[in-house]
Amino acid sequence: MNIKMAKELNILLLGQTGVGKSTMINFLVNLCTYSSFDDALGKPVKFVIPTSFKVYPKGIKGHEIKLGDPDENEDLTKLTQSHTQKPKIYKISHSDFILNIIDVPGIGDTRGTLIDEYNTKIILDTVALFEKLHGICILLHSDRDKLDLMYIYCMNELLLHLHNEAAPNILFIFTHATRCDFTPGDANEVLTDYLKELKDKKGIVINNEEENLFSIDSESFRYLAAYNQVPEYQNMESNQYRSSWEQSLKAFQAIYKRIISVNPHSVINTLSINEARAMIISLMGPLATVTALIEDNYAHYEQNIDDIIKKLTNNLLITDYTIELNKLDYPKTVCTAKKCISVEKSTDGNFVTFYKQICHARCYLKNVPLEHFPEPALKDCAAMRRE
Ligand SMILES: Nc1nc2c(ncn2[C@@H]2O[C@H](COP(=O)(O)OP(=O)(O)OP(=O)(O)O)[C@@H](O)[C@H]2O)c(=O)[nH]1
Ligand SMILES: [Mg+2]
């Protein structure tokens, strides 16, 4: 690979399981090691991630190609299941640049969505080791031609965990690109539809313009490995793979140029939206319980409101009162001080003075004008005498 740079770049690979993330890293190591396809042909194939796959040079009985032994991070027991178990950082050094590539378990794990949730968490934990991400590569299989639920699920899982500011750092890389002559083909139309929906429904704008779309095919890497392990491959026409190597090399050079042309993404932004998201998710349970309790109480209250009013009414010491005026046939001596009277409304609607302090319950004085104050004749009342 002939790119003049001396920069350290952090690159995150994301994509559905089986799309070719780990293979792309191995392929890149060979592109950085050998000067051309012909230089690599027949020499040991380089790999940093153990891998195994089947090739079918003749009929249905395939040959298993193995590079390295499976380790705890690459589960190669079954070709049909997800391989990469945990995110891992691979350092690829070249005289001109150093790439820290984060390979991650794929979304859409064959063991189910709970594993995806766990994987997302451990991917973010690994990303947190870096301050900046220069490139976020989303790998898509170039034969995807439908915007189906799986596609939407995987893309949501990949994109909704990224901060909006990461948008310029996102690149789309279409793998298995030979089938579309190294163009994104129909898969880009599906991507366009998805990104339009993302913009309309969630207001997230991510471009898929020529400058962030790339096509690669790791088949030449597979061919080189098979060439060393399966005799039939040595007599096979290799032009297709030579061309595939060269076209992929050009794509990697374009990817590199794109990554160094944009400002790196501050990882803290992506981590903080994910912390907020985790907090919201952890609050959802308690909030749902509280909401249910409130609704329950409200329904209960509506049902029992009449009973409650009745019970409260029965417990009141004074429910209500009315004032009826009865004229006495004898006078009483009362106190007219402000604190000893109140003004109340009688049943006939008139206001009457209510004398709370009775000084003499029955006054026998004669010729004292009634309801008169101050009244000097009252000085002879027994109430006054007592004083
Ligand atoms: N022909 C062809 N085969 C590919 C390409 N990329 C990957 N493969 C094969 O596809 C299979 C899955 O590739 P992996 O690299 O393990 O995929 P992955 O995205 O790392 O998958 P997980 O680790 O499960 O997330 C392997 O058999 C690869 O050899 C490609 O561009 N062309
Ligand atoms: Mg992998």
List the helices and strands and how they pair.
Elements: E1 7-15, H1 21-33, H2 37-40, E2 51-55, E3 63-67, E4 88-93, E5 97-103, H3 113-127, E6 132-133, E7 135-141, H4 149-159, E8 170-175, H5 185-202, E9 213-215, H6 219-229, H7 239-261, E10 265-266, H8 267-315, E11 333-334, E12 341-345, E13 351-355, E14 358-360, H9 382-386
Parallel strand pairs: 1-5, 1-7, 7-8, 8-9
Antiparallel strand pairs: 2-3, 4-5, 6-10, 11-14, 12-13
Could you list some keywords that capture this structure?
387 residues, alpha/beta, Rossmann fold, 2 domains, two-stranded antiparallel sheet, 14 strands, rod-shaped, binds guanosine-5'-triphosphate, binds magnesium ion
- The strands making up the biggest β-sheet line up spatially as 4-5-1-7-8-9
Count of beta strands:
14
Listed once per kind, the bound small molecules are: guanosine-5'-triphosphate, magnesium ion
Order of helices and strands: EHHEEEEHEEHEHEHHEHEEEEH
Shape: rod-shaped
The portion of residues assigned to helices is 25-40%
Q: What CATH architecture label of the largest domain applies?
A: 3-Layer(aba) Sandwich
Q: How would you state the average pLDDT, rounded?
A: 87
Poorly predicted runs: none
State the separation between the terminal residues, measured CA to CA. 121 Å
Which structural class best describes the helix and strand composition?
alpha/beta
| Fraction in beta strands | 15-25%
CATH class of the largest domain: Alpha Beta
Rg computed from alpha carbons, rounded to a whole number of angstroms? 44 Å
CATH homolog superfamily of the largest domain: P-loop containing nucleotide triphosphate hydrolases
Number of helices in the DSSP assignment = 9
